Amino acid sequence: MPQTSRRSFLSASMAGALSQAAPLQQARTASRKPNFIFFMPETLRAGSIGSYGHPLVRTPNMDRLASQGVRFTQCHVQNTVCGPSRCSLLSGWPVHVRGHRSLYYFLHEDEPNLFRYLKQDGYDVYWFGKNDALAPDSFPSSVTRFVPGGREAPANPWPPSDPHYYSFLYGPAGDRRETRDYQGVQEAIKVLERADKPFCIYLPLAYAHPPFSAPRDFHDLYKPADVPALRPPNLPRKPNFFEAIRRTRRLNELQDSDFRKMQAVHLGMISYSDWLLGELLAAVDRTNHAKDTAVFLFSDHGEWGGDYGLVEKWPSAIDECLDHVPLVIRAPGYKQGHVSEGMVELYDVMATSLELAGIEAGHTHFAQSLVPQLRGEPGDATRAAFCEGGYNIYERQLFEPPMTPDQAEEIYYPKRTLQNQHPETITRATGIRTLEYRLVHRPDGISELYDLKQDPQELHNVYGDRAYTSQQEALRARMLDWYVRTADVAPRKTDPRGFPKKQEQ
Predict the structure, then answer these.
(1) Is residue 490 part of a domain?
(2) Mean pLDDT by 10 residues, the chain (505 residues)
(3) Bond preceding residue 208 cis, omega within 30 of 0
(4) Got the DSSP string for 405-470?
(5) Is-contact 280 188, C-beta < 8 A?
(6) How do beta strands 385-389 and 429-433 pair?
(7) Across the beta sheet with 448-451, what order do the strands follow?
């Protein structure tokens, strides 16, 4: 529900939560404020976790967390690129509300974010890892301590003349305890050991973002031959950037075995992220914070990882590989082992956290609190999730800066060159996802419609098929309604209608 008037809603829902979950009263500290840990591996789609159904990957700690909390089977992001997705996560806004749709425009001091609400309410907010969410002027009011993270990877093992060069398929990295992700988790453990007031720990980690390279004891954990069949390339009626990416990265010259290797290494990277989570959860137990700390597991977007013969992601791409992410919440005093199968959106994390902390949002937003599902309710089977991406051709400030020919050996050279020389591959797109269908509308490109009951891998685009006319038009109308309702947010302050009185001389 839109959050245009939250006080009565929050009061009622908090009262319900406290009356229906008596153990919560004993679990929390005297301040009645839970601590928060947001564990966010980058580039992790839901289907790459054991508890979400992957038949090969080993993710025992993520699976254990799901068994101890609530697993949301259908969580979808608002944008399939890290920056816009994180801005939506923290604000509760679709990207179109304030134009947060690129890697170069983040949340400023005059805009709301979850961490500022927590900090102003007395929390220490610790941020260990990548940014891509807040502009510099937002940090003083939102973050107590920030330690930037990043990704280490070995040198590209392929010569520039080899078609593997731009594939992101690298060799193994170093020791598992020598990554910046590990250092970030260690910083978080120090907070757990010494915290004496409510805290929020945000861990936006770098794994499992490409290059495809894992610490050496995870890199070859899975055999490419054991990887489930990937979505095939060269499917008809796919957006123009599918083939353009394959051509410019020379992925069209690779074999199925190459893409299986990419996916196998990616799964090893995910198992490494799972090991990091295990280190963190062990510290939560050791410091007795399991009784007063809510732990969230989610990601900012997914990864093709060889599906469709593609790697990484693309700003105007909206598909199951990229927008469907895990969401697991273990909150003290709430339901354990519950599975919620209704549609939810990643920015619901903001509304849920605020309700758990008893904080009322001071801005209009469109996220929904998931506290009812934490109590064991099933969720809304009729809800839809919405995702946006891409840029208008004249919005050059949003494009990643072009590279010159002498930078051709940079791994992102093909991507930046394609975007800038062929902006028709990166046009705006909007998608609506229900439990049964996905519609992606591109005014300046190929639109898509998938019957997810018949085609869960999204292989057959039935947009324009007469057999699906009624479903297509119903989804289009629902998307238009969503845009009208969320087109902007009015500030809560008001201005006088009259002119100021003339000042006396």
Answers:
(1) no
(2) 38 32 36 89 98 98 98 98 98 97 96 98 98 97 97 93 98 96 98 95 97 97 98 98 98 98 98 98 98 98 98 97 98 97 97 98 97 96 97 93 96 97 96 98 97 98 98 98 96 84 65
(3) yes
(4) GGGTTSTTHHHHHHHHH-GGGS--EEEEE-SSEEEEE-TTS--EEEETTT-TT-----TT-GGGHH
(5) yes
(6) antiparallel
(7) 385-389, 429-433, 437-441, 448-451
Please report the DSSP string for 13-44 in residue order.
Answer: HHHHHHHH-THHHHHS-TT---EEEEEE-SS-
User: Both ends of the chain: CA-CA distance in Å?
Assistant: 51
User: Token digits for 443?
Assistant: 């005014």
Domain that includes residue 66, residue range? 7-383
Rounded distance, CA 306 to CA 312, Å? 9
DSSP for residue 215:
-
**Cα torsion angle, 204, 210, 215, 220, sign:** positive
Domains held by the chain: number: 1
Residue 358 located in a structural domain: yes
Q: Please give the full DSSP string across 249-317, using - where no structure is assigned.
A: TTGGGS-HHHHHHHHHHHHHHHHHHHHHHHHHHHHHHHTT-TTTEEEEEE-S----TTGGG--S--TT-
Rg (CA), the chain: 23
Distance of CA 53 to the CA centre of its chain: 19
Give me the pLDDT at residue 6, please: 36
Residue type (1 letter), 310 = L
**3 state DSSP class of 373:** helix
- How far from 101 is each of 108, 124, 285, 398, 430, CA to CA, in Å? 14, 29, 39, 8, 12
Strands 124-128, 199-204: pairing kind: parallel
Residue 365 lies in a domain: yes
Q: How far apart are CA 112 and CA 114, in angstroms?
A: 7
**Is the residue at 67 inside a domain?**
yes
| DSSP letter for each residue of 453-504 | TT-TT-----TT-GGGHHHHHHHHHHHHHHHHHHS----S----SSPPPPPP
d(CA 176, CA 173): 8
CATH of the domain at 243: 3.40.720.10
Using CA atoms of 284, 86, 117, 279 in order, give the dihedral in degrees to the nearest 10. 10
SS3 track for 325-355: EEEEEECCCCCCCEEEEEEEECCHHHHHHHH
What are the distances in angstroms from CA 280 to CA 190, 218, 295, 305, 380?
A: 10, 18, 10, 27, 32
